[in-house]
Write a structure and sequence with these properties.
By secondary structure, the protein is α/β, with parallel strands linked by helices. The chain has 16 helices and 19 strands. The strands form four sheets. Strands 9-10-8-7-11-12-13 form a seven-stranded mixed beta sheet, with helices on both faces. Strands 15-14-16-17-18-19 form a six-stranded mixed beta sheet, covered by helices on one side. The termini are far apart.
Length: about 475
């Protein structure tokens, strides 16, 4: 069956209504319904206002998402509640989590179809679930003026949408204009429409990459799922094969997905009420811009990141961008920053003339050099030399093996002692006693690194400055 391309028959409506009463004053009601949406569903989403009293002194009030209560009327009858919970650890960090009740799975019995219940009630003479005549007349009294105005307006400024979408973008714009960004994303992405695991989820991790690189990522996320509610979506690209999807308790894996469908797949599968992190392990770079719009955090993890680094300025505007190399360098940066707490050491480092880095990963070395240069405000007079680490091939527990910063009368060194899982930081000062400290390098596994990234909720300005500076440093 085809539809006349010139047809102006309405197929979708989005309304913003208000009740003229003291109880509901200032509370907007958004109603949406349409044809050819991604799925048949009826739901009521209630977004609670933030209270005027803010008890979390170290967290901005705007960084705390509003609580949500979602009543799923059909087809998956149930209730979902989203609220903020403190992340484990000593730091005061909050993250939204979901609690899901599903009527069909909670009691272990089959739920009757809606019309089965209605037909039985009709035979029993029970009108509870039927619309009364005064309700129907009141509904038409509200809708008829809107319908007449629509007919009178003709086809000018008509809003359209593709079959399979959640309506025209103007419907979202209406909510966003009222400051209802979270609710607009909830309605469009519909995380509560997807049946989740029994325990509360804390984050969604979307991994994109070649099939051979997804295996290690899946193992890492499985380890994280054992200690927390991490929902994984793993996608490998492909142009000439039909995509294949596999679903397990904690993960959704899609292989052979054409790059042009990547954005739509992620938009349909991600949970909009939870933080979403895209872990980029390779693929079509053109898809990154769209993915960045869907991600709260974008983590790069590719061997040759120059192409992506070149477009970082655009990505910075869309999401919180980072590189897994930066996470690997956390202990190195912390060790050096601790030495910089000594004012004379920082002054000496700021006037250094030579930086030498031995590295397993030249891009990590450039990133570390970019961080130093941006933090110490070096000029081009500083000579930066990056050397391959002696005898180091491939990945190691840390991307660097040694860093030496030399200046007039001062030398700062960081190195990994042979056969030891630690970092030795030392300052050798002319006419003074050498200073040294040992720093554990930490667990360099993928699970540990991604787990560390999941604990970060905001943009990392130090990384952004380091990356911009690193692009100017030759390999």
């Amino acid at each position: 069956m085809t539809v006349n391309p010139l047809s102006t028959t309405e197929t979708y409506v989005a309304l913003r209504l208000q009740l003229d009463s003291w109880r509901w004053a200032g509370v907007p009601f958004y109603l949406r319904t349409g044809k050819r949406l991604p799925k048949r569903t009826t739901e009521i989403a209630i977004q609670f206002r933030r209270p005027p009293l803010h008890i979390f002194k170290r967290i901005s009030p705007t960084a705390i998402a509003s609580n949500l209560l979602v009543v799923n009327v059909q087809p998956d009858e149930g209730i979902s509640v989203r609220f903020e919970a403190k992340l484990p650890g000593s730091r005061m960090q909050l993250a939204p989590v979901m609690m899901n009740f599903r009527y069909g799975s909670a009691f272990g019995t089959q739920v009757p179809e809606a019309y089965e219940t209605l037909l039985l009630d009709a035979m029993l003479g029970d009108p509870t679930l039927f619309a009364r005549h005064d309700f129907v007349e009141a509904s038409w009294g509200l809708i008829t003026p809107i319908h007449d105005a629509w007919r009178a307006s003709g086809t000018k400024d008509i809003s359209t949408y593709e079959a399979g979408e959640w309506g025209p973008r103007e419907a979202d714009a209406m909510m966003k204009a009222d400051g209802q960004v979270t609710l607009a994303r909830l309605v469009r992405d519909g995380d509560h429409r997807k049946r989740g695991p029994a325990r509360a989820l804390t984050a969604t991790v979307i991994v994109v990459g070649r099939p051979e690189r997804l295996v290690a990522a899946a193992d890492a996320l499985e380890q994280l799922s054992e200690s927390g509610g991490v929902r994984a979506i793993l996608i490998s690209e492909g142009e000439h094969t039909a995509p294949v999807a596999r679903v397990t308790e904690n993960a959704i894996a899609i292989s052979g997905l054409a790059p042009r469908y990547l954005n739509n797949a992620v938009a349909a599968l991600r949970l909009s009420s939870l933080p979403a992190m895209v872990w980029w392990r390779g693929g079509s770079v053109e898809a990154l811009d769209d993915l960045a719009n869907l991600a709260d955090r974008l983590v790069l993890d590719i061997a040759e990141p120059d192409v992506v680094w070149a477009r970082a300025d655009t990505l910075f505007e869309r999401t919180a961008l980072t590189d897994l190399r930066w996470t690997c360098l956390t202990r190195w940066r912390a060790a050096l920053a601790h030495l910089f707490d000594l004012s004379h050491v920082r002054r000496g480092a700021a006037s250094a003339h030579t930086l030498t880095i031995e590295a397993r990963d030249v891009f990590a070395a450039r990133l570390f050099a970019g961080w130093l240069k941006s933090q110490l405000r070096w000029t081009s007079a500083v000579r930066i030399e990056i050397r391959p680490a002696p005898g180091a091939k491939g990945d190691g527990p840390t991307p660097l093996t040694a860093v030496t910063l030399a200046g007039d009368g001062l030398a700062i060194s960081l190195r990994v002692p042979q056969g030891r899982a630690c970092l030795e930081a030392a300052v050798d000062e002319a006419g003074g006693e050498p200073t040294a400290r040992i720093v554990p390098v930490g667990d360099g596994t993928l699970a540990a690194l991604i787990g560390e990234e999941l604990g970060v909720r905001t943009r990392d300005l130090a990384f952004e400055q380091a990356l911009v500076t690193a692009r100017e440093i030759p390999a």
